[in-house]
Amino acid sequence: MYTTPNSVEILGENDKKYIRMDFSLDDQKSRCNPTPQQRAIYNFHEARHSNEADDIYASAWFKRTKDFMKHAHQNAHVVLDSWQEVEILEFGVFFLAHPVAGYSLWHFLCACNELDAIVCGRPPIDDWIKLKPFSYTETEEDQNAWEEALRDLKGRIESGDLEGENLLQKLYAIFCGLEKLDVTFQTVEDTFISNLGSKMFAEEMMNTIRTAKEWRCQKIANLSLADDTLSVEEDLSMCSISAYVHDTDGTQPVPRN
Q: Which domain of life is it from (predicted)?
C-alpha cells in the first residue's frame, strides 16, 4: 500500500502489524554526512561490541545511501500488507527504512552473487537501487544455472580437463564463497528479526533468505567428484586445500611454504 504526500493516511489496528517503509528525505537530513542510516547501523553494532559495520562510514556507503535517497519517492510510504508487496519491494527503499537489516542483507546478497559468479558466471549486481531482494533470492533460473554449471564442472574433472592447480583454485574459490555466504547469513539471522520484530511477513522474509543459502550449500554438498559417495568436503581435503592460503591481495590461493 502506497501513500502520497497529498494523501492522509489513517492507520488501523491491522496496519500496525505490518512492516512499514517510512523514512525522511527532508533537505537537512539529505545533507548529513554521515547519513542517518549510516549512524543507525554504526550505533547498533557498536552497542553490541561488534565490528560487523567497520566499513559503514566509508565514502562508498555515504554515496550509496545518498543514491538511495535521490531515487526514493519523496515522502512516499509503503506498508507491506501482502507478500506481493514484499516481492516488488526495492532494496533502496528497504535500506532507507530499515538500515540495520538492509545492511546485513546487502552483505548476504553480495555473498550470494559472488558465489553465483564463481559457480555459473553470474554477472555482478549493477542496480542496487531497484533490486528486488526477495524476488532476487527466489529465482528458479538461478538454481537451473547452478545445476548445469556443476554438471559441467564434474564432467571436466572426471575427464581430466580440469586438474592440478587449476582444479585446486576452482575448489578453493568455491570453498571461500561458501564460507563468506555462511558468515553473512549468520549476521542476517542475528539482526534481521531483531530489527523487524514480529511484524507480518518478517519471518517469511527471513525464510526466503535462509532458503537462498540452503539451496546453494545443498547443491555443492551433493556434488560428487569421484564417486557417488564422495562429497565436496572430502574432495577439498584430498586436494589439500588446507595447504593453500590467500596471497597478499586476497584474491588467489598460493601454497604455504
A: Eukaryota
User: What average pLDDT does range 155-182 have in this prediction?
Assistant: 92
Nine cell digits for residue 119: 559457480
At residue 19 the predicted structure's pLDDT band, cuts being 50, 70 and 90, is: confident
Residue 21, beta-bridge partner list: 78
Q: How many CB atoms lie within 10 A of CB 17?
A: 13
Which residues are CB-neighbours of 133 under 8 A, at least 6 positions away?
A: 89, 91, 94, 105, 109
Residue 73: Cβ-neighbour burial (10 angstroms; 0-12, 13-18, 19+): middle
Give the β-pairing of 19-21 and 244-246.
unpaired
Distance from C-alpha of 38 to C-alpha of 53, rounded to nearest angstrom: 9
How much is the pTM? 0.80
**Do residues 109 and 125 make contact, with C-beta atoms less than 8 angstroms apart?**
yes
Domain residue limits, the chain: 95-122+131-255
pLDDT digits (tens, 9 = 90+) for 105-148: 999 999 999 999 999 988 888 889 889 999 887 778 889 999 99
